[in-house]
Amino acid sequence: MIGAQEGTMTMTRWLLLGTLLLTGMAWAQTTPPPGYLPAPPPNPYGPPAPPPQPVYVQPSYGPPTYTPPPPPKSRGDIELGGFVGWTVSTDAGTFNGTVIIDGAVDYGGTIDYFIRPGYAVELLYAYVPTQARFASFAPGVPSGDSAGLGLHWIQIGGHVSRPFGRIEPFGAITAGMVIIHASPIRFQDGSTYSADDAVRFAFTAGLGFKVWMTENIGLRFEARALVPVYFSGGGFWVGTGGASVGLSGGIPFAQFDFTGGISVRF
Asked: Which CATH architecture is the domain 78-265 placed in?
């Protein structure tokens, strides 16, 4: 009896041991090893969005703006001017005495054609109606009474100006001729003398300024020297040293006028 019971217990132990071994093998087949976790299922909405970055508002500056200067005003290429003023003269010396020329009112006009800004060709006409008298210092030559003397200045030359706002300083140099018309002269001994009109080479030089009241109308103020020139002789010769020309002459008198007038440019 006792041996049968022991055999039964031994068999039971082996059955339990076999069952445990089989159970362990089945658990090992279905259970992951320690420390191993299965990957989580994929996110159907994609990877999570990164956290939002802070947004710094940068000040915006537009491009710099500049107010362009106003365009230069255009006054055209042709300028017409008229003037009136006062002329003073130096005395004219002669072999027998002095011709004293009185001061007088003069008037005239100008035409300027601007070939480029600030540079023009100027045509000038001025008329000086004055009086002159002859003062003799030679014995036997009588002095003369006052007689009319008209001088017509016809000139062409250059005109240079520089505008400063409404003020425009300028300078002018011209060359041309002067026509001298003298009335009959009555001497103190009762005799008279009638001189023919004389045409002489002459030049002028003047400085002044204009004040533009509007875009095309301005006032013109000027001081100008008017100088006649006479030639009393000439010569031309050719030699071994070359060729040469000789002239002699002088300036009998000079006039200076101070004028004001109006200029119109278009």
From this structure: Beta Barrel (2.40)
Tokens of 252: 């009998």
pTM: 0.67
Strands 242-250 and 97-101: unpaired
Angle CA 120–122–125, to nearest 5: 165
Are 134 and 185 in contact, with CB atoms under 8 Å apart?
A: yes
The predicted structure's pLDDT at residue 88: 97
Judged on CB neighbours under 10 Å (0-12, 13-18, 19+), 200 is middle
Q: Give tens-digit pLDDT for 62-81.
A: 777 778 776 665 667 899 99
CA dihedral 96, 100, 106, 111 (to 10 degrees): 40
The DSSP annotation for 2-69 comes to HHHHHHHHHHHHHHHHHHHHHHHHHHHHHSPPTT--PPPPPPTT-SPPPPPPPP------PPP---PP
Show me where the domains of the chain are located.
78-265
Least Cα distance to 112 among 83, 82, 80, 160 occurs for: 80
| pLDDT exceeds cutoff 60 at 175 | yes
Query: What is the spatial distance between Cα 144 and Cα 193, in angstroms, rounded to a whole number?
Result: 10
Nearest to 124 by CA among 257, 14, 244, 12: 257
Check the CA dihedral 250-252-256-261 and report its sign. negative
Q: Is the pLDDT of residue 25 over 80?
A: no
**CB neighbours of residue 213 within 10 Å:** 11
Largest Cα–Cα distance in the chain?
207
Q: How far apart are the first and last CA of the chain?
A: 155
Residue 209 to residue 112: CA distance in whole angstroms = 15
CA distance 222 to 118: 17
